[in-house]
Design a protein that fits this description.
The structure is a single chain. It is built from 29 helices and 24 strands. A hairpin with a 3-residue loop joins strand 20 and strand 21. 41% of the residues are buried. Helix 18 (386-399) packs across helix 19 and helix 23 packs antiparallel against helix 25 (498-525). It binds a DNA duplex through helix 5, helix 10 and helix 20.
Length: 723
DNA sequence: CCACGTTGTGTTTTT
DNA sequence: CACAACGTGG
């Protein structure tokens, strides 16, 4: 292997420094993925390390598959026995194979956010929790945070203050964990937490893995949380051949518990750490890097490094100002179409990045109008779509009889006349007899408690038993087809409703995916793919894993999803305060810094050119908001950015000055006949003021008005005079 | 006892 | 807008 032909001297050092802890600070586009691949190949080919003694943790399954692919194709290495995957998939693998030592069975179900919410809603009803005081998502976020910090319900008050609020959260957390266990299910955070606990509490198992993993590599180390830190620590402690790769400037997952300190303190956490910096960027021209550097230097507490490049292109990032989100989308799509012609490019060299998934909708419309192929990555994950989850629920309950969530999902889908009352009776029967719902449905005694619905339950039961038999015999693809025809889904979705049509399209795609899986599984293992094999494979799949970068279509995704990817032309849309930085992050400096890194990540995806844009007005379903250009735009030196309309950029600063108050960020402007946002009015008692929001029309309009000294009042239209 | 229509409520980012 | 909770008619 001639390393010096293909790697620069720093990259070579990374590859050849195999013994002891190694920290690689790799800037955007510095070839870190390349390094990881070569390093793995080097370990196997030159150092003669057995593939099963190597662990590589990647950020996505896609990256893992690419690594395996490259090893096989470029180096002829059989990567079957190499341990490569995401933290979650590796944990699932460990937990399933060590299942005697964990409280769950090996065929546990993995619950996604929809399942989590559904469990939570039931718990709220069961122990009578006020949804207004204890916001579901907020409580789930707290629970997630506990798990990422390895705090079990029993340890909760060692780390949390004791008050009415936390006591209730604790109660919910405790019950939540129990319900999941009863259902033989884990959420994503459980995968990490239970694996760490398993290794921590079982010396034998821990020794087995630390013995096994002689060499460990972690990509995107800046986005690891405490549980992941601990996990890595436990499996690499014996050999200490741990190589972590990351870039603190690209840390964008703190809201998921990721702790940037993991990378900042690596040199303190391990002894004799060798640190190598990769600062040469091979992706972007200087014009783009200058802008990116100018932006990121506004963040404090970073590893000191400076990214440079030899690529010289005159393409400065360009900034566009548009009237509203529709013209923003239109303009971007037009620009893409023009650029494609001019540069003779392929559509797959373009990407549109945005902060929130909701922003994709206007682009969809624009692309459809212009008849240009596009592909949205992310948003609602394919496997999370309602119609797919329905089918998956059948598969899950047949695979894991304890999965009450899935049973409840399908007990009356498709409609079989089993309603709320009957379902409640089954639940009561189950809890009286300490059974799962599945067992209850099969139980003869249950029928005594039911009226005329008993017959329907009987039919349901026979179907379940039939499917269960079939699922054990048939290959997964055949079984899914049988199931879909038994359920007569084609008839259910055979309507004129475009949504139903698209749902059935998705079901067909799902069937195709199971067929593909079946074929591959048989090729790889020589065995018949059964239900159980399939479920393990898909539960951790994401949209990103399946997307096809070669397809001739423009790609659309969030900035988070763009991490690790690169495109010739990058469009960054919605650069407005409230969107980027997002309104939920706007009053916290640490969070603002993360939003800044997000923009940094977005900019550094580009190989040829960056286009940024913002809209003056933006519609968010019901209301139109008048926006303010993102504060980040002001941080670029004037000569770094080309403004498509020079006067408008100049206006960024002045328009920001005018509206310093945060309240003006969320002004709702409706095209009302009588009152308008920003209109000056006077009130008999409160004096002069400015309208901040309008709800309703004319005399009956409910107005929010800012009077002198910033006092906000809600007033009915008939009480104010326009000036 | 279930289906369906109406009202109400909440909206970052993801494994 | 999208989906959950609620209330009424069949």
């Amino acid at each position: 292997m001639e390393l010096h032909d293909v790697l620069n001297s720093e990259q070579q050092k990374v590859v050849e420094h195999t013994e002891g802890p190694l920290l690689v600070l790799a800037g955007a586009g510095s070839g870190k993925t390349r390094c990881v691949i070569f390093r793995t190949a080097y370990l196997i080919k030159v150092k003669k390390i057995k593939p099963w003694n190597i662990l590589v943790v990647t950020f996505t399954n896609k990256a893992a598959n690419e690594l395996k692919d490259r090893l096989e194709r470029t180096f002829g290495i059989n990567s079957q026995n190499l341990w490569v995957g995401t933290f979650h998939s590796l944990c699932a693998r460990i937990l399933r194979s060590e299942n005697e030592k964990i409280p769950h069975d090996a065929n546990f179900t993995i619950y996604d956010q929809v399942d989590q919410l559904s469990v939570m809603r039931k718990i709220y009803k069961e122990i009578d929790i006020d949804k207004k005081k204890f916001n579901l998502k907020k409580v789930l976020a707290i629970i997630s945070k506990q798990k990422n910090s390895l705090i079990l319900p029993k340890d909760f008050f060692n780390f949390n203050e004791e008050n009415f609020y936390t006591e209730t959260v604790h109660k919910i957390y405790t019950r939540y964990q129990n319900v999941l266990l009863e259902n033989n299910a884990m959420d994503f955070d459980d995968l990490l937490m239970y694996t760490v606990i398993l290794l921590h509490e079982n010396d034998k198992i821990q020794r087995k893995y630390e013995e096994k993993f002689k060499y460990v590599m972690i990509d995107e180390y800046q986005d690891t949380n405490y549980a992941q830190f601990k996990l890595i620590n436990l499996v690499s402690s014996k050999h200490q051949n741990l190589c972590v790769v990351g870039d603190d400037d690209q840390a964008i997952y703190s809201w998921r518990g990721a702790d940037i300190k993991n990378i900042l303190n690596f040199e303190k956490d391990y002894s004799n750490v060798r640190t190598i910096k990769l600062e040469q960027n091979y992706r972007s021209p200087k014009t783009i890097l200058d802008a990116a550097n100018c932006l990121i230097k506004n963040n404090s507490s970073r590893h000191n490094k400076r990214l440079w490049t030899e690529i010289k292109l005159k393409n400065k990032p360009e900034l566009m100002k548009l009237d509203n989100e529709r013209s923003e989308a239109e303009e971007i799509v037009k620009k893409i179409s023009k650029l494609k012609q001019k540069e003779d490019a392929n559509y797959n060299e373009f990407v549109i990045l945005y902060r929130t998934n909701a922003q994709s909708r206007v682009f969809e419309n624009a692309f459809t109008r212009m008849r240009i192929k596009y592909q949205i990555i992310g948003g609602v994950n394919f496997y999370q779509r309602k119609e797919i989850k329905d089918i998956l629920a059948y598969l899950k309950i047949l695979n894991n009889h304890q999965d009450n969530e899935s049973l409840l999902r399908i007990i009356n889908f498709p409609r079989r006349g089993i309603g709320k009352v009957t379902i409640q009776k089954i639940i009561d029967f189950a809890s009286d007899n300490e059974m799962t719902l599945y067992q209850s449905v099969l139980n003869e005694d249950l029928l005594k408690y039911l009226g005329y619905t008993a017959q329907r339950i009987k039919e349901f039961k026979h179907k379940l038993q039939k499917w269960e038999k079939e699922s054990k015999k048939l290959a997964i693809s055949e079984f899914v087809e049988k199931l879909i025809s038994d359920l007569e889904l084609d008839e259910i979705y055979d309507t004129d409703d475009p949504q139903d049509i698209s749902r059935f399209e998705n079901i067909k795609e799902f069937v195709a995916a199971t067929e593909e899986f079946s074929e591959n599984f048989k090729l790889e293992t020589g065995e018949d793919p059964l239900l159980n094999n399939y479920l393990q494979n898909i539960s951790l799949q994401t949209d990103l894993d399946n997307y096809n970068e070669n397809e001739e279509s423009v790609k659309l995704m969030t900035m988070h999803n763009a991490k690790g990817l690169e495109f010739d032309y990058v469009f960054i849309a919605g650069l407005e305060d409230g969107l980027l930085p997002h309104s939920r992050s706007i009053d916290n400096e640490r969070q603002i810094e993360e939003e800044r890194r997000l923009l940094y990540v977005a900019i550094t995806r580009a190989k040829r050119k960056v286009f940024m844009s913002y809209a003056n007005m933006r519609r968010t379903f019901n209301t139109v908001i008048s926006t303010i250009p993102s504060r980040f735009l002001m941080e670029f030196d004037d000569d770094l950015i080309r403004k498509s309309d020079a006067s408008s950029f100049y206006n960024i600063r002045s328009s920001r000055k005018k509206s310093k108050k945060k309240t003006t960020l969320h002004i709702k402007s409706e095209s009302e006949k009588y009152f308008r946002i920003g209109q000056k009015i006077s009130h008999a008692k409160f004096g002069k003021g400015v309208i901040l929001s309008v709800n309703g029309k004319g005399k009956n309009a409910k107005l929010t008005i800012s009077f002198s000294k910033g006092k906000l009042k809600k007033i009915i239209g008939s009480f104010v005079k326009t000036l």
